[in-house]
């Protein structure tokens, strides 16, 4: 498959993030109320730029939809190796894990764990709302003939989780999480559930949804930007030291 699959990782280079606090508990009622504000922040600078870049890359990826589908489904062994992505990327899996982290933090009186879970829940909620809305509006047919192909919900859920983890814990958690999310995106193509363009824009939705939130950073930030290549697209990964606070 020609490298456009790599373009599922989108983080706006040079953007400034808002730092949050990890020392205050997040009551569930306030968490639910804050989701509406998160949705409105999708039109603010950083999430909007991520969505715009994702839309542009999805248009480019659409030209590779047929070829990437053939390449990903040509090998039975590859399909089997990617089978775990169906469950790992399911929105219910990510939402359930987010709630589990939140409850664990509350039960153990750990504001850091509780806030991580809260941000995961918010990111999944925003991602799910935008993804489902676009699925119903676009009604694209999946490669297997089913409905609601665009955008990929598995990809949006996985990349929302990955970006929250990177924002909270830095590149040591972020890079493996992004790789896992890319694995999930690839699995959706191999399983005839989505086209490459579905995965690319779903990934942008997940990252944009996570970028509507505020986070505490610890030492470094990973920034991943798309770059054009002769074969399609690639990633430029930068690990940037953050000033001490």
Describe the structure in your own words.
It contains ten helices and two strands. It is mainly alpha-helical and 245 residues long. The protein has a two-stranded antiparallel sheet with strand order 1-2. It is globular, with a radius of gyration of 17 Å. The N terminus and C terminus are likely disordered.
User: How would you describe the shape?
Assistant: globular
Radius of gyration: 17 Å
Counting DSSP H or I runs of 4 or more residues, the number of helices is: 10
Could you report the average pLDDT, rounded to the nearest whole number? 81
The strand line-up of the biggest sheet is: 1-2
Biggest sheet record:
2 strands, antiparallel
CATH class reads Mainly Alpha
Structural class: mainly alpha
Encode the helix/strand succession as letters.
HHHHHHHHHHEE
Oligomer: single chain
**What is the total tally of β strands?**
2
Structural topology:
Elements: H1 28-40, H2 45-62, H3 65-73, H4 76-81, H5 85-88, H6 91-107, H7 111-138, H8 153-169, H9 171-190, H10 196-210, E1 220-229, E2 232-241
Antiparallel strand pairs: 1-2
